[in-house]
Write a structure and sequence with these properties.
Elements lengths: L1 H60 L1 E18 L3 E19 L2 E10 L8 E14 L2 E9 L21 H5 L6 E12 L2 E9 L29 E9 L5 E10 L15 E13 L2 E13 L1 H6 L3 E12 L4 E11 L10 E13 L2 E10 L8 E9 L1
Antiparallel strand pairs: 1-2, 1-16, 2-3, 3-4, 4-5, 5-6, 6-7, 7-8, 8-9, 9-10, 10-11, 11-12, 12-13, 13-14, 14-15, 15-16
Length: 388
């Protein structure tokens, strides 16, 4: 009678023990799966963070910052009325900021802090602010404020890319570089090695009675934010670069009225035409730069004073002795009132050396000789410049 009951009790005990073991196994399996889910969740979060960081890095790499600057020391045989006999100054510091929105649209800007040797204050200038919109692989539009396509130095003037401490006087006083305006420029490459630039922009503005001075048309540049645009200007440049190491270029500019206002001049409107041409040739370690520029101004007042023509040229042979050392000589000749009776041409000879510590960092030295009276302008120059 008790045997069936004992058997049933034994079975119940073993069944209960087996159920407990199964429950423990289930709990352990659930805990294991929970840990795996947590690990996978952590991996997903880490992956999402990495993707976001990659996006941020890609966005940041589309924005670039650059800089170039130079410090000069000038020593003259005779004291200069404006800067004395010996002078050292931080000539300029320029910050460049650009951003690529996509492969075909980019923004460029340059802010320049400039201190001339004869000034005690730093002048801040907005040199460039434009978009470069590539509407076709061989056609782009520059819209905003940009450097005009004239001469050799106007678009490329970082201190490590040219010889001599100071920029050449022909491009400074005749063209006048550095020169920027506001408008629209079409840049086309119709054939391999051939580039054509056409720009419509605001023009120069100044008092025609001041022409013929030592600085030429430099003071006619409208450098500030707001520029008078009563009469527009038009610039054309054709550049040829088919032969290896050789660049040939010519520019023409038409200014409708360099006064921008009839009340500034007795002789009425003053239209003007600028023509420039240059050769830039490099063969092995030898280089040669030749540039000529000329302004013709149609105005009665300018003609009466002989200031209706400004012209100049320079010739600059160079020799890269090593990868780091280069020597040069540059002969400059110019006249800011070429038709004025009795006004002779200004002449200046510079001979010197560049030492590139790095392709982007350069030390410069040159001696300078002019045809000015009493040896005024004769002396030597030292400088350091860099860009990145």
């Amino acid at each position: 009678m008790f045997r069936p009951l004992l058997t049933a009790l034994t079975v119940a005990i073993f069944a209960s023990h087996s159920y407990a073991e199964s429950l423990d196994d289930l709990r352990a399996e659930l805990a294991k799966q929970k840990a795996q889910i947590a690990a996978q969740q952590s991996q997903l979060e880490a992956l999402a963070t990495a993707v976001e960081n990659q996006k941020a890095t890609a966005s940041n790499s589309a924005t670039t910052v650059g800089f170039y600057g130079e410090v000069h020391y000038n020593s003259f045989k005779e004291p200069d009325p404006a800067i004395g006999k010996n002078n050292v100054h931080a000539h300029r510091a320029v910050i460049l900021l650009s951003h690529a929105f996509n492969d075909n649209l980019r923004f460029y800007s340059e802010i320049e802090f400039e201190g001339a040797a004869d000034e005690t204050e730093i002048e801040t200038e907005l040199e460039q602010l434009f978009i470069d919109w590539r509407v076709h692989p061989k056609l782009a539009l520059n819209i905003g404020q940009f450097l005009l396509p004239v001469g050799l130095l106007n678009e490329s003037h970082e201190p490590n890319v040219f010889y001599g401490v100071e920029r050449n006087p022909v491009e400074e006083k005749i063209i006048p570089a550095t020169w920027w305006e506001k408008g629209v420029m079409v840049r086309a490459v119709p054939a391999e090695g051939l580039a054509v630039d056409v720009a419509v922009h605001n023009g120069l503005r100044g008092d025609i009675n001041t022409l013929g001075g030592a600085d030429g048309l430099r003071e006619f540049r409208q450098e500030f934010g707001g520029s008078r645009a009563e009469d527009l200007a038009y610039t054309l440049r054709v550049k040829y670069q088919v032969i290896n190491g050789l660049e040939l270029a010519a520019s023409f500019q038409q200014q409708e009225n360099i006064t921008q206002s009839h009340d500034l001049v007795v002789g009425g409107k003053a239209s003007a035409q600028l023509m420039t041409a240059h050769v830039d040739y490099h063969w092995q370690n030898l280089g040669l730069r030749v540039l000529g520029a000329q302004w013709d101004i149609d105005n009665a007042v300018a003609k009466a004073t002989g200031a209706d023509k400004l012209a100049g040229f320079y010739v600059e042979p160079s020799w890269k002795v090593t990868d780091k050392i280069g020597v040069f000589a540059r002969y400059n000749q110019w006249n800011t009132a070429a038709n004025q009776v009795g006004k002779s041409d200004d002449e200046q000879l510079n001979v010197g050396v560049n030492y590139w510590i790095d392709p982007r960092v350069v030390l410069k030295a040159d001696i300078q000789n002019t045809n000015q009276k009493n040896n005024a302008g004769d002396g030597f120059n030292l400088g350091v410049g860099l860009s990145f």
